[in-house]
Amino acid sequence: MAVFGLLATALGVVGLVAPDAQLALMGFEPIPDGQRADGDHTLMFLTASSMAAVNMGVYYVLAALADWRAFFRWTVPFRLLTFTVFTLAVVTGRAPAGFLGVGIWEGAGALATGIALRREALRGGAAAGSAAVSGAHDESTRLPSRTAPHGEK
What we know:
Helices cover 67% and strands 0% of the residues. The chain is built from six helices and no strands. Helix 1 (2-17) crosses helix 2, helix 1 packs antiparallel against helix 3 and helix 5 packs antiparallel against helix 6 (126-134).
């Protein structure tokens, strides 16, 4: 989680500071600013996705520091969905082949996280394992409950 978070943050910063370098990393050919067509919003979309990557990376690092297992579990299906969408973008010609690396990064990260969580659950015993795999709450994942003042229902 922490490694993914640091990588996402770093790549987000690259997109904010050096957008052409980020485009090249993803397999897109950068277009010099003076040659962009009117209405080309590539840099705006890159800025938005890069800022999202910075935020997401920080969330992952904070979740890792807090050892927030519920967050780890939540990331697995959504990263697999991201892998699917990004891979389909390449397969359907909507994105260049270099963009497949982004999908593979998401898919591999999801699988690694899922496997690690499963191994931890199995090491913790049958009861702990089934709770961890099913997403059952423990004290570290439970939201605080509201307690009514005396006499209030």
